[in-house]
UniProtKB/TrEMBL annotation:
Protein name per Swiss-Prot or TrEMBL: DNA repair protein RadA
Entry-linked Pfam families: ChlI
InterPro entries to which the protein is assigned, alphabetical: Ribosomal_Su5_D2-typ_SF, Ribsml_uS5_D2-typ_fold_subgr
SUPFAM superfamilies: Ribosomal protein S5 domain 2-like
């Protein structure tokens, strides 16, 4: 990744993505998906996996969040109750606690492992909802259908909050053929004027609504 720190006639918030081949460096044609792995539709592997959209400069990237819930914890010490890779530990702990208190998930006895695929380090809150969805998927043993993305910040009350440049994030998943995008309810009105094709935008006020919309099919 090559970042421009000064450009007199353009934005200084630009990021170039290149890969090394036999002939040298070349630009990655579709950098949005370089951190996404191909999975068969409705695969059991998708249990505990949720997709979100993060931004670096003016670029958008689809990122996979993985979660693994083990109950009861295989090692009876608090040090293994939550292990994270690529997610700020305090943020991950907060999301787990909100799921317990506000969404009613019985995660107290579970050891939770979280991972960001591709070695990405989360530095913004837009991935909060995907982290929560991945935990719910693993805990409930309910695979998230392929073609579903999650964008939004999670508050201490379990409420969902919108994030900067959500229109560009949602447009990215729409252009890549995603069928559904779950966002905070307050962002739906902003997205009404966007040409999102056949993609359905699901607006939710809180985590309970997300669970009922995605994980409860009755």
């Amino acid at each position: 990744m090559l970042r421009a720190v000064k450009n007199r006639f353009g934005s200084t918030d630009e990021l170039g993505v290149f890969e090394m081949i036999q002939l040298g460096l070349r630009a990655v044609p579709n950098a949005c998906e370089i951190f996404i792995t191909e999975q068969p539709t409705d695969s059991e592997v998708l249990t505990g996996t949720a997709v979100t959209v993060l931004m670096d400069g003016s670029r958008t990237f689809l990122i996979e969040i993985q979660a693994l819930c083990l109950c009861p914890s295989p090692i009876p010490t608090s040090s293994v109750d939550l292990q994270v890779n690529g997610i700020p530990p305090k943020r991950a702990t907060m999301i787990k606690c909100v799921l317990i208190k506000q969404a009613g998930l019985k995660l107290q006895e579970n050891a939770v492992f979280l991972n960001v695929v591709g070695g990405w380090k989360l530095a913004e809150t837009a991935a909060d909802l995907a982290v929560a969805a991945a935990i719910c998927s693993s805990f409930m043993e309910f695979p998230i259908p392929k073609g579903v993305a999650f964008i939004g910040e999670v508050g201490l009350g379990g409420e969902l909050r919108t994030v900067p440049r959500i229109e560009k994030r949602v447009n990215t998943v729409a252009k890549l053929g995603y069928r559904t995008c779950v966002v905070p309810k307050q962002a739906v009105k902003v997205l009404e004027t966007e040409g999102l094709g056949n993609m359905t935008v699901i607006g939710c006020n809180n985590l309970k609504e997300v669970i009922h919309a995605i994980f409860i099919t009755e």
